[in-house]
Design brief:
Layout lengths: L1 H24 L2 H38 L2 H28 L1 H9 L7 H15 L3 H10 L3 H12 L1 H10 L6 H24 L1
Helix pairs in contact: 1-2, 1-7, 1-8, 2-3, 2-5, 2-6, 3-5, 3-6, 5-9, 6-9, 7-9, 8-9
């Protein structure tokens, strides 16, 4: 439980730390844009995560029975399904982000919301592959190394973004940093799972 708390805390600190940094370095309109884009991408993500709940017992049961190949097969198939479903949702939202923002918030849309939302959707697309992989790691019960590495990578978002902002970088670059670290986390998950199962 302790290591799961560490992973969740690292994710939350990475997210809220980004909001604090944007608030420190930029005008409030940038922070409002980030909040709006985060809320909207969170709605999309919650739909994908709700499907994950139905898969958790199957993966854990297969691991407990020792049917590792079956478990991996289910996980990889689920990852592909999540990626395809996410792409079906993300692609139209990406191209019509401006219209969606105007429909949702009418004329009160913060200036950079659409741009931030598009970048958040790309991150969502990368992260959509990970839920079954995370369940596989948790099924083993040996998640200390996994959570330390993934949580550590997530926490690196803050100092890297801070450094970029200190050098005069644009506000949207927090999403570029998160995108890069999301890819690094995905690669790390795959490498860690290779050793774990």
């Amino acid at each position: 439980i302790l290591w799961s708390v560490w992973g969740n805390l690292a994710s939350a600190l990475s997210n809220y730390g980004g909001n604090i940094l944007i608030n420190l370095y930029f005008l409030p309109v940038f922070n409002a844009s980030r909040v709006v884009s985060t809320q909207l991408s969170g709605v999309i993500n919650s739909g994908i995560n709700s499907m994950q709940l139905s898969l958790t017992p199957t993966i854990v049961r297969l691991y407990a029975k020792g049917e590792i190949n079956k478990m991996l097969n289910v996980s990889y198939r689920a990852s592909r399904i999540y990626l395809n479903l996410c792409a079906l949702i993300v692609i139209p939202f990406y191209y019509y982000s401006e219209n969606i923002m105007n429909l949702w918030l009418s004329n009160t849309t913060p200036e950079y919301s659409s741009q931030f939302f598009r970048l958040a959707l790309l991150i969502l697309l990368v992260d959509s592959v990970s839920p079954p992989l995370m369940i596989c790691a948790q099924a083993t019960g040996n998640i200390k190394k996994y959570q330390v590495i993934i949580g550590g990578l997530l926490l690196f978002v803050i100092p890297v973004t801070w450094g970029l902002y200190s050098l005069g970088s644009e506000a949207k670059n927090i999403y570029v940093v998160i995108f890069i670290f999301s890819i690094l986390c995905l690669i790390s998950r795959l490498l860690l799972l290779r050793d774990m199962v």
